[in-house]
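Researcher: Please predict.
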Amino acid sequence: MTRYLKSIILHRFFFITLTAFSLGACATPPDASDPEAVAEFKQINDPAEPTMRAIFAFNRALDTAVLKPVAAAYKDEVPQKGRLGIHNFLNNLRTPIIIFNDVAQGDFKQALRTLMRFLVNTTVGILGLNDTAAEVGMPYRNEDFGQTLAVWNVPEGPYIMLPVLGSSNPRDAIGRVVDFIIDPLNIWAGNVGNNWALPARKASDAVDSRARNYDTIADLEKSSLDFYATVRSLYRQRRSDEINNGKVNPAISVPGIGERMDDGPKVEKISFAN
């Protein structure tokens, strides 16, 4: 593993560790004499909320100053067909990570489908720019190591807001690091000295995601009485939907993030960074 790749991994661990220290410093449960407040505190599961809100404010400021205007320019200057091609290409790049997690979850049939998707889109779909596989009945399904840990019954832990990276929890934060380590593109880029590939890909992912949800985020900012709480709720709904592959989880009463809410647009992510 190259020095550059090790540095990137250490930075990610630093963000996670920093947030973990914040959790320990800010946890203030309500008085036990108020059972309703205690029950609500446990249900929200955000013990370091003041610190998380401060990090959220930092992420929003970064979004306003950098990511939002870049995403707006991207939407204005790149035709929709071009943006869709870039989105498909980025999805195709994730295939090795998805296959790894399909196998780790014991879903070998899905791993084979994912491999077939990759072969079809990389060839007929011209390096993944066209999602030809979806057109012939093989839709895209993302899997990550956070989902794999959930399948292994690892608890998610409390909600955390990571600097730059956005909404997460300890389980998903660890999953991010594992996915980064096993990604062949990251390994290749680090070993051959193409260090530009890692930040370029990350920036492309962030701009693509922000542009695709540009109008939805703007609407939520305007309509939400507490935008932080809305983002927290939507993140958990989306993760529940992804972990259960769109199937209803009886333990969760909220609708999946993949469903339409109040006849509104389908939300992919509510985050200011990928």
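Model: The beta strands are 160-162, 166-168.
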